[in-house]
Amino acid sequence: MRLNKFISESGACSRRAADAWISSGRVAVNGKQAALGTRVAAGDVVEVDGKPLGTSRNAVYIALNKPRGIACTTERHVAGNIVDFIGHHERIFPIGRLDKDSEGLILLTNNGDIVNGILRAEHGHEKEYLVTVERPVTATFLAMMASGVKIGGEKTRPCVVARIGPATFRMVLTQGLNRQIRRMCSALGYRVQSLRRVRIMHIRLGTLAPGRWRELSATEVRPLLATVAGRSAAG
Q1: Quick count: other Cβ atoms within 10 Å of Cβ 131?
Q2: Of all helices (H) and strands (E), which one includes residue 54?
Q3: CATH classification of the domain holding 174
Q4: What is d(CA 149, CA 112) in angstroms, rounded to the nearest whole number?
Q5: Catalytic residue annotation
């Protein structure tokens, strides 16, 4: 098995992150620094930063209602990191990110294979948000948000936007630029007061209370695994 696949299946991180770890010299196999393309076999000892890495026994898929102030990082030295917040017995990591100042649905897993299948922009997976800004929104503002806003020299993809209150709107994105909604609002002269993600693909936040998490059902997991199968078939 390729080393990056072994690391991702252990639940430590995605394959892409594993490649970065290997390139930076953080990974050793049987006491020797590993290289990209290294293969491992049964009985080999894989270490990351000098600590042995085991293979997770059970696949874990979690939906968390992330509260504000929790950081979507696996770096344990970061105060308020999401891994310590959940305290799961398996080594899990978030699929994508949700800003520290934002709240709502985020998925976590120990299956590194599904991460890229879910996050790749060309797959066009939907993410739905409820956004409140500091003053009433206008029809012009909503139309501009829907058609695309130029941020960082790049115009955002067209998306679905609908008013649900004087200063609150629903937004469905199929891309995930860094702090995208906040930057789009700022470019149009608005400041986000609250931002909550309520859906990722077919998985909804529902009535899950802030700070609580639940395991995904088999019905919810099946389409996530299909993103991996689709990628493999395409490759």
Answers
A1: 25
A2: none
A3: 3.30.70.1560
A4: 32
A5: 99
Write the CATH number for 108.
3.30.70.580
Q: What distance in Å separates the CA atoms of residue 77 and residue 81, rounded to the nearest whole number? A: 8
Q: Could you read off the pLDDT of 147-168 as tens digits, one per residue?
A: 999 998 999 999 999 999 999 9
CA dihedral 226, 229, 231, 232 (to 10 degrees): 180
pTM, 2 dp: 0.75
Residue 191 and residue 145 share a domain:
yes
**Residue that is written with structure tokens 């806003």 in the block:** 149
- The whole-angstrom separation of Cα 105 and Cα 119 is 15
**pLDDT above 80 (res 234):** no
Rounded Cα distance, 221 and 124, in Å: 18
User: Quick one: 212 and 223 in the same domain?
Assistant: yes
> Where in the sequence is the domain holding 93, given as residue range(s)?
61-120+203-234
Please state the domain count of the chain: 3
Confidence bin at 10 (pLDDT 50/70/90): confident
Amino acid residing at 47: E
What is the reported pLDDT for 230? 54
Neighbours of 138 (CB within 10 A): 12
Taking the C-alpha atoms of residue 176 and residue 106, their distance in angstroms, rounded to an integer, is: 13
Quick check: 220 pLDDT over 50? Answer: yes
